[in-house]
Amino acid sequence: MNVITIEESALYELIERVLERLQSPEHAVKPKWISDVEAMQILGIKSKSTLQQFRDRGQITFSKVRHKLILYDRESIELFISRHERKAFNNGK
């Protein structure tokens, strides 16, 4: 086993960098269920009726918690977007 030594100041700097990265938005815990506003924002739509069409067609997963409270599964929305992805074919030439 090898022993690695590091100066105390370098250790604290390294710890600080790790903490900064862990606290960055891309490492934030994303909730499984999101509101209609968040769902529309992720999908890039402005109409609740379009969101309802996606629900009615079974294209996104949702949960009707109460009469007027519908929550959407973030993962199913991301999957919906991925299924409609089109690969670039021009490679910048």
Description:
By secondary structure, the protein is α+β, with helices and mostly antiparallel strands. The protein has a domain of 51 residues. It is 45% helix and 13% strand. The protein has four helices and three strands; from the N terminus they run H-E-H-H-E-E-H. The chain has a three-stranded antiparallel beta sheet. The protein starts with 7 loop residues before the first helix and ends in a 10-residue tail after the last helix. The model has no long low-confidence stretch (mean pLDDT 90).
List its salient traits.
13% strand; 3 strands; elongated; three-stranded antiparallel β-sheet; 45% helix
What is the typical, i.e. mean, pLDDT? 90
Order of helices and strands: HEHHEEH
The main pleated sheet reads as:
3 strands, antiparallel
Span from first to last CA? 51 Å
Number of strands: 3
Proportion of residues in β-strands: 5-15%
Helix fraction by DSSP (H/I, runs of at least 4): 40-55%
Number of helical elements = 4
For the CA atoms, what is the radius of gyration? 21 Å
